[in-house]
Design goal:
- The chain is mostly helical.
- The protein has helices at 2-16, 19-41, 48-72, 76-90, 99-113, 121-132, 138-154, 174-191.
- It is globular and about 55 Å long.
């Protein structure tokens, strides 16, 4: 269990005199304890590791936001301190999916569910979370899901052929997914940061 790994790391940091790690781990344990208290009155994940990962992902997100603000404000020393905490926290998180891996997962789920547009976003997000919640930032993934499903409405997708519509319920093979992602990368270079440039009316 991740919770046990964190406790073991705290003991190791104390023995080694690693103050930086010890302080970061103490913050992690406090955040997890607060989440445990909340879970007593609300719904908690069935898997304890899922609960811990949820807490740690939130901590990483908060610190990355702080890093951006500190760097904008010229407070590099504070940004570096936040970045050091992120490095400690991420030691206990599963390997995170990058944008291309997330996009491939979304395409596969969309095809399997026969998702046809934005009305299916809830179903796609729910399935993505069920399969990969511990491996990705769901807030970032929602933007990729939204962009992918938007093109189910227009029928014009930079990923050709578009994985939309019922009757196209088979997930793409790894080779097909790689081809789709290569095309997506080329479109990003042409249109900027978005893999799914919106069509002008």
């Amino acid at each position: 269990m991740i919770r046990d790994d964190i406790k073991a790391a705290q003991i190791a940091a104390m023995k080694a005199g690693d103050k930086e790690s010890r302080n970061a781990i103490s913050l992690m344990q406090a955040a997890i304890k607060n989440r445990d208290i909340e879970a007593r009155t609300g719904k908690a994940p069935d898997d304890d590791d899922a609960l811990v990962v949820e807490v740690l992902q939130k901590m990483v997100k908060q610190r990355r936001e702080s890093i951006a603000m500190y760097e904008t404000g010229g407070r590099q020393e504070l940004a570096d301190a936040e970045r050091a905490e992120v490095a400690v926290i991420e030691r206990f998180l599963p390997a995170q999916m990058d944008e291309e891996q997330t996009t491939a997962a979304i395409l596969a789920i969309k095809a399997e569910l026969g998702a046809e547009g934005m009305k299916d976003m809830g179903r796609v997000m729910a399935e993505l979370k069920a399969r990969h919640a511990s491996e990705l930032d769901m807030s970032k993934a929602s933007g990729l899901v939204k962009a992918a499903l938007a093109y189910c409405r227009t029928g014009a997708s930079p990923l050709s052929p578009p994985a939309c519509g019922r009757g196209r319920g088979r997930a793409p093979s790894p080779a097909s997914a790689a081809l789709l992602l290569a095309r997506s990368s080329l479109r990003r270079k042409a249109y900027g940061s978005s893999a799914f440039p919106m069509r002008r009316s």
